[in-house]
Amino acid sequence: MLVDTGKESVPQLSKCCGLTAPNGMTVPLKSIEVEVNIKGYLAEVVTKLQYTNAEENPIEALFTFPVDDGSAVYQFEADIDGRHIEAEVQEREQAILTYKDAVDNGMTAMLLKEDTTSSDTFQCTLGNLPPGKDAVLKMSLVNELPQEADGKLRFTLPTVLNPRYSPDAGGSVAAEGSTYVQPCAMPYKFKLMASVEGYHKIKAVTSDKLSLKVEMEREEKLAKVSLGEEFKFDHDLTLYIEYSEPFQPQVVFENGDKDSEGLLKEDLLMVSFHPDLKQVSMSNSGEYIFIIDRSGSMNGDRIKNAKEALLLFLKSLPPSCHFNVVSFGSEFSCLFDRSEPYTEKSLKKALILQKTMEADMGGTEMYKPLEHVLKAKVKKQPRNVFLLTDGDVGNSEHGISLIKSHCSTTRVFALGIGEGLSTSLVKGVVRAGNGLAEFIADDARIQPKVVSLLKCAMQPAVTNLEVTWDLPPGVSLVSIPTELPAMLTVGQRLTFFALLKGVEMNTVYAPSTLSLKGLQNNNPITFTLTFTLSDDKKVSKSAPVNCLATKVQIKQLQDAEAAVQEEIETDCQLQSDNTNQINYLCILRLRRQIVDVSRHGNIISKFTSFVAVDTEGEKVQGKLEPRSCPIPTVSEEFVKGFNESQSAEYGSGGTLVATAMCSAATLMAIESDLKLRCSLIDYLRNTSKQKKSSSLLKRLGCGLLKRSKKQASSSAPMDFSDKSLDAVMADKTSSNSDVAVGSDQMMLEVITLQELAGNWTVSSRLTGFLKISNEQLKSKEIIADGTVLLTLAVIAWLRKHYGHRQDEWEIIETKAVMWLGQQGLQRPVEELITLVTEKMLTA
After folding, report:
1. Which of 75, 305, 526, 531 has the fewest CB atoms in 10 Å of its CB?
2. What's this model's pTM, rounded to 2 decimal places?
3. For 205-219, 338-352, 446-460, 627-641, which range has the lowest pLDDT when averaged over its residues?
């Protein structure tokens, strides 16, 4: 059936409640229980999946689900019919063979693997669950929580998974094994319990979309948290943790397990801190390039958020900078051929584009616009690139590698918009580009995130970084990672891991120091952190520091492998056979290192998986029935397109399900291109197979949706010569009477009218917003110059009506005050603003 939304009719999935999927099949997944333990900056998450086979034949249950990128999955275990099974890490293809062989021989087995193109998507498979039997699968992971600009820590449990755009396929491809449904009551129960333990007092634990039950204990250093309402699967579950001292460094020392292998047997130190660089003045120049995702999936609130973000960016830029705007979808187009100076003329063109842009450019081909921007000559170092996207991109490794190769001259910031976006993309580009990332929900306010990113970008980066440790006598270390970032951005939190040697238990050590040195505006800076090596008796037995250090090593090696792969694909024709052979061998070596680190640290990777076999259970008889567990998606484009393509099969009254289930044989075929070859010839054959994977997916019908492509020029500048900003404003904005005082729209409309120099000029629209008459502007009681008076009035108006959002228009006000300071005023600016408030802003 269809539901009238007032805009367009969308499919209503009325059958995705209870214990059956929308396609009528029984859902074996009955409940998900999540236990979260947060201590300081670290979060340990244990997810329990309870399965029941209510059918007459054995089943193979597939569940594809998202995780936050950077999470270290360190344990996978199960309880089946009273027996406990623990999985081990094996090379990916070997794990698949182990699983397939066990299932073929009637044994119950389970497999957990990372998606081949997105490190934030996993697939859990439970094979040969006998009729009438239950199984509880438990996955454990740890991650380091990101920190908001206001100091709050953000914990995200991703629950929405959107199809990702594949350049090779030319459309959106469903994650392997996934069954997509629109958000509704899922056919499985969901429960979350969380505890937060702070090194300092906990001020609050909140959620922007959920009511929570929070109980404080231990003098407000421990919080017990549960959901105060039923969770709706139309957004990711997010908690915000506010400590009384939010930016304090965290130092954790963790003893190794001497009976283990690899990093797990070593003593490790984790140091996480924000270097205090806040007093540095903002840059007056620089190069700023905004890359805006205008693909079909950005439709609705997402493109609206992107447009508002671009407006604030454009109006807040420093006066002596260069800038450009790049739009991308299936193709890309640039506002200017190359970055241009920030002038009235260039700003006018940018504002016309900002007002008229829509989500009308087809797919999400991100690599080519990135390549065009990064390979252009830098106008003023460092170049600052801002990527605004919903992150629905698969195989983002090539773009991340490209950014990494330009990290010495370019910083990349990212604003991830919407639910279910690819955290591996957003976090990956800023990790490679030494920038910062912000995430914004579809219905959340974007302005604070935008200004936060821009403030950081406008402050000079710290380069020539050096880190030195001063440890007690007899104690030595090896840093993880060994490679320092090319530059440090203000607001960026640094985390270092150190493998320690020579630490004696129950020994009282003298204080140690970590010193960070660098150059900012060619001036030397030094940041020193003092700490004491001591046993933390409260550190979890799951060894979270070891897990995260292993994950950092794996990420570093995978980034290096992807960079070599990128070099091969882009420069293969230009390089000698000897160079190509060296590169191929380098990839083999890096993949082998990844497998070794993964196995020894018990952390799965792109090239390894968890696998377990129940060798003690009875042999399972009967035909194996595949069953896929539904996962919600908020991708309206995918749902609509799949519905149209499948309407003949389901009928007008049918229920919509987008499924990407593949048989074990098919799964083996798709996975074969990841096998680590022992010879160069095998590897070359393997490379040719990779390009066939997308066509294989098409033939298998694994949920592929083609997006229509709207043609646009590759990089030619846009022509706005026949348009005026006033005309566009008249077409695209509402009348003053339609805009409420105190609304976001009114604030943005007033900001739009600011001139490049920082002042405001008289217009009926502006005076209407401020409710100031022409007689008041002509009055010389406060000051004779009408433009100066109006600029003072806007500042006073912003402070009066939007004082609670000062951080959003602070840069706008700074530009205005600087302009006022150049007008030779006889009275202080603040005194004049007070007078204007008292005498003119009576409404």
Report:
1. 526
2. 0.82
3. 627-641
Residue 705's DSSP bridge partners are: 172
How confident is the model over 241-265, as pLDDT tens digits?
999 998 889 999 888 887 777 777 8
CA angle at residue 362 from 359 to 364, to 5 degrees? 95
Nearest-angstrom CA–CA distance, 228 and 833: 46
Looking at the predicted structure, is the pLDDT value of residue 731 above 60?
no
**DSSP-assigned letters across all residues of 771-813:** T--HHHHH--SS-S-HHHHHHHHHHHHHHHHHGGGHHHHHHHH
Give me the residue label for tokens 């995260």: 548
Whole-angstrom Cα distance, residue 140 to residue 48? 9
Q: Backbone dihedral region of 771: left (phi > 0), alpha (psi from -120 to 50 degrees) or beta?
A: left
Q: For residue 655, what pLDDT band results from cuts at 50, 70 and 90?
A: very low
Crossing angle, helix 397-404 and helix 544-571, to 10 degrees?
90
Tell me which residue of 392, 387, 410 sits closest to 310, measured CA to CA.
387
Distance from C-alpha of 376 to C-alpha of 470, rounded to nearest angstrom:
42
DSSP-assigned states of every residue in 197-226: E-SS-EEEEE-SS--EEEEEETTTTEEEEE
Q: Which residue, 401, 395, 402, is CA-closest to 375?
A: 402
- CB half-sphere exposure, 223, CA atoms < 13 A: 26
Asked if residues 107 and 619 have their Cβ atoms less than 8 Å apart, the reply is yes
Answer for the pair 725, 348: CB distance below 8 angstroms, yes or no.
Answer: yes
Find the farthest-apart pair of alpha carbons in the chain and give their distance in angstroms, rounded.
95
Helix H, strand E, coil C: the string for 546-587 is HHHHHHHHHHHHHHHHHHHHHHHHHHCCCCCHHHHHHHHHHH
Residue found by looking up tokens 């594949």 in the block: 166
Alpha-carbon span 635 to 527, nearest angstrom: 45
Task: Determine contact, residues 256/268, Cβ cutoff 8 Å.
Answer: yes
Beta pairing class for 222-227 and 189-197? antiparallel
The full DSSP string for 311-355 is HHHHHHS-TT-EEEEEEESSSEEESSSS-EE--HHHHHHHHHHHH
* pLDDT tops 60 at residue 219: yes
CB 331 within 8 A of CB 712: yes
Asked if residue 212 lies in contact with residue 235, where contact means CB atoms within 8 angstroms, the answer is: no
Two tokens, residue 187: 């056919």
- The Cα 217–Cα 223 span in angstroms is 6
**For residue 705, pLDDT beyond 90:** no
C-alpha to C-alpha distance for 2 and 516, rounded to whole angstroms: 60
Tens digit of pLDDT for each residue in 783-813?
889 999 999 999 999 999 999 888 889 889 9
* 581, 552 contact by CB (below 8 A): no
Confidence at 385, pLDDT banded by 50, 70, 90: very high
Categorize the per-residue pLDDT at 614 as very low, low, confident or very high, splitting at 50, 70 and 90.
very high
Tell me whether the omega of the peptide bond preceding residue 382 falls within 30 degrees of 0, making it cis. Answer: yes
Amino acid at 663: S
Provide the 10 A C-beta neighbour count for residue 182.
22
Q: Mean of the pLDDT values across residues 403-414?
A: 92
Phi/psi of residue 429, nearest 5 degrees: -70, -35
The phi-psi region of residue 144 (left if phi > 0; otherwise alpha if psi is between -120 and 50; otherwise beta) is beta
If DSSP codes are grouped into helix, strand and coil, which group holds residue 474?
coil
CB atoms within 10 A of CB 33: 16
Partners of 80 in beta bridges: 83, 135
Question: pLDDT per residue over 129-177, tens digit each?
Answer: 999 999 999 999 999 999 988 889 999 999 877 767 666 666 666 666 6
Where residue 281 falls among pLDDT bands split at 50, 70, 90? Answer: low
More confident residue, 184 or 388: 388
pLDDT of residue 167: 65
What sign does the dihedral 560-565-571-577 (CA atoms) show?
positive
Q: Phi first, then psi: what are they for 295, rounded to 5°?
A: -70, 170
